[in-house]
Amino acid sequence: MRICQVSGAVVAEVDDEEFCHILGLGGTIKALKQCLAARTGFSRFRQRLLAESGELHDDMPLSKWPELQLVILERADSDFILACSTNRLAEVERMLHRPQNPNTIEQPEEGGSCWAFIAAASNGWLDVINLLLPGACVIGDSRIQWAQANLGVSNSSDAWTALHWAARFDHLELARCLVQAQADLEAKDLEEQTALHVAATEDSWEVTKYLVEAGADIEVLEVDDWTPLHCSARSGSVAVAKYLVAVGANTEATDCDGWTPLHLAAENSCLELVCFLIEAGANKDAVTERHALTPLHLAADHGALQMVRYLVTAGAKRNAKNIEGRTPKDLAASIANWDVVRVLDEPDVDHPLSSRKCVLGMLENSND
After folding, report:
1. DSSP character string of 279-296
2. Which regions in the chain score pLDDT beneath 70?
3. What's the CA angle centered on 177, arms 172 and 180, to 5 degrees?
4. Buried-exposed string 265-302: b where 16+ CB fall within 10 A, e elsewhere
5. Taking a C-beta distance cutoff of 8 angstroms, is the pair 214, 208 a contact?
6. Which residue in 231, 239, 238, 218 sits closest to 260, CA to CA?
7. Contacts 24+ apart (CB under 8 A), 75-79
8. What's the pLDDT score for residue 100?
9. What are the ANK repeat spans here (predicted)?
10. 3-state SS of 183-215?
């Protein structure tokens, strides 16, 4: 069976072996178009196959016509993005048969741009994604500039891939679908964040675990040299941080200013995560490069009484001085937090921290 364009140029010749292969894929015109898509680069939605009897529709059974004519249609973009972003599957299917471009760009009033493929991904519409995948171009490199009002994100030009959006909303099945379709696990946005950075930031536990198991780099750096563990520490994503450490994340990794995940957890006043990181071996007296801050400096400066008490009990250096020569006690006094000052004035504890019992007690009182 020969398939020719209007010009007469032969696009494909389907021999008996390939014909049997197409029969195995479903034995319909749709299956034939999917095979032709791999050869021509045009998705099945842009293809029209004509026999002497007329147009051959997707659900028609395949037959051994001696020759078919292939017509590639121009695109007709209309309300396609809206249909994709609102999960109107039947309407998407109907529009694709006009056909539509799965990578259509729209300019919303708020500014920015959005591809239809990403519009569906950012909303987690798996059925729409599965429909678009055969015609989507370079899934791993698809970029989005989405207006802030649409999704409530802080940056309207993040340049996220579909996988970033799956990580943002912890859409596990969508992430699995994209990775199986060869989405790039290490694709970076404008801040050089991968999907794993986003998952760690957003406490997306299921997607974090899946991405790591799929081979994502747990030590990958973003623009400020944050690892995914830094991201989870800054956002207080305790479960994600524990998982990352369990699979080998470096608790001593430093960013461009020498901050470790422990510094970020202390600054974020996340006592549970501070306790976990220290028990996991993190250096409780690590010093930042620019301001010479220890985790105890940060806890004292934020007036985090229970965290200060825990760090002191764990043996953190109370007399450590920052770049200005100030100790944690000096910082607590500067904000008139006399409870913290009193803890820092207490005599040194000679015995090691009784970890689990002490930690649990402090966590129970962490809201005091």
Report:
1. HTT--TT---TTT---HH
2. 6-7, 73-82, 85, 95-117, 133-158, 348-368
3. 120
4. bbbbbbbbbbbbbbeeebebebbbeeebbbbbbbbbbb
5. no
6. 231
7. 75/46, 75/99, 75/100, 75/101, 75/104, 76/100, 77/101, 77/104
8. 45
9. 158-190, 191-223, 224-256, 257-289, 291-323
10. CCCCCCCCCCCCHHHHHHHCCCHHHHHHHHHCC
Same domain, 114 and 8: no
Is there a single domain that holds both residue 43 and residue 156?
no
Whether 328 and 294 have beta carbons less than 8 Å apart is answered as yes
**Where do we find the tokens 């095979």?**
35
Residue with tokens 């801040």: 191
| Interatomic CA distance for residues 262 and 64, integer angstroms | 68
pLDDT for 115 equals 59
Rounded to an integer, what distance in angstroms lies between the CA atom of residue 244 and that of residue 361? Answer: 25
Cβ distance 182 to 139 under 8 Å? yes
List the domain range (segments joined by +) for residue 18.
Answer: 2-72
Considering its fold, how many domains does the chain have in total?
Answer: 3
Half-sphere exposure of 20 (CA within 13 A, CB side): 2
Q: Pairing relation of β-strands 2-5 and 67-72?
A: parallel
Phi–psi pair at 363, nearest 5 degrees:
-65, -35
SS3 77: coil
| Three-class DSSP category at 138 | coil
In a domain, 131, yes or no: yes
Q: pLDDT digit string (tens) for 4-16?
A: 876 678 888 888 8
Residue 44 CA, distance from chain mean position: 29
For residue 338, count CB atoms less than 10 angstroms from its CB and return exposed for 0-12, middle for 13-18, buried for 19 or more: exposed
Other C-beta atoms lying within 10 Å of the C-beta of residue 336: 9
CA-nearest of 204, 269, 195 to 232 is 204
Q: What per-residue confidence (pLDDT) applies to 355? A: 47
- Calculate helix-pair angle for 205-213, 238-246, nearest 10 degrees: 20
Q: Are 158 and 164 in contact (CB under 8 A)?
A: yes
